[in-house]
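Reopening this ticket.

The earlier resolution said the output was attached, but the attachment link was broken on my side. Pasting everything inline this time so it's all in one place.
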Amino acid sequence: MKITMGKKCMLLVSFICTVLFAYGQGKGRLFIIGGGERSTALIGEMVETARLGSKDYIVILPMATSVPKESVAYISEQLAEHTDHPIRSFNFTKADANDRADWIDSVRHARLIYMTGGDQSQFMDVVRGSKLYDAMHEAYRNGATVADTSAGAAVMSERMITGALLEEDGDGTFREIKSNYAVTTEGMGFLTHAIIDQHFIYRSRYNRLLSVLSDYPKATMIGIDEGTAIIVKGRSARVVGDSQVVVVNRPKNLKISSGGKVAFRNARLSLYSHGQNFKLN
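Inline output:
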């Protein structure tokens, strides 16, 4: 069958679009805050990242927190310093996440979606496998910015750190670096080859992140400190804020002893601060 020049052009355009989509072009952005105090400058960066148009609006999702009204009021006040766009909030229940078509539709068409801190497992118990989950991904594919802090940062990953231990260890702190030590589960999946940990430097969560690295050695571990965020577009990330971001990946010669202790060598460890960029796998 003879292919005309016009059909060749159409096939080429289709191929290019497919490749660009696969590498994250034409999608929205992620604004992932590591928790703690959010400076005025950081919120300003978030609003600027969202590129709000004249008819756009912001949606806040407070399902992770035990104090939704207070959390919504606080971030709304911060946002209002930088934008006069409408701000809506929806505290979904598990049933609402499938049944409240009007709320779900509002999320689908939002330009900036913000998830509060709290308990990441609580958030995912509401959203996982729901129409709301689909709506959030559709908004992102259509160019929305998905933002968060603390627990909201954790849910960004395909594999999410819950904060729990597979073994009870006294006061619940991670005192060792071991395989099958930290509990992970399904997150939102906006990041498919990276795993996020939050409050990272301030709370010295190195043991936890390195333990997770042993379980997922092909993924990139990203520890975001308080008052700091990464802005992700496709495979590129930029650091903004007051502190730093730790990135660890590519461990070599990974070995796990019978007691679960981990050994590896020559992993790549990088430390980034405001204005610096790095590539995701």
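Reporter confirms the inline version is readable. Residues 16-26 have pLDDT under 50 and may be disordered. The radius of gyration is 20 Å.
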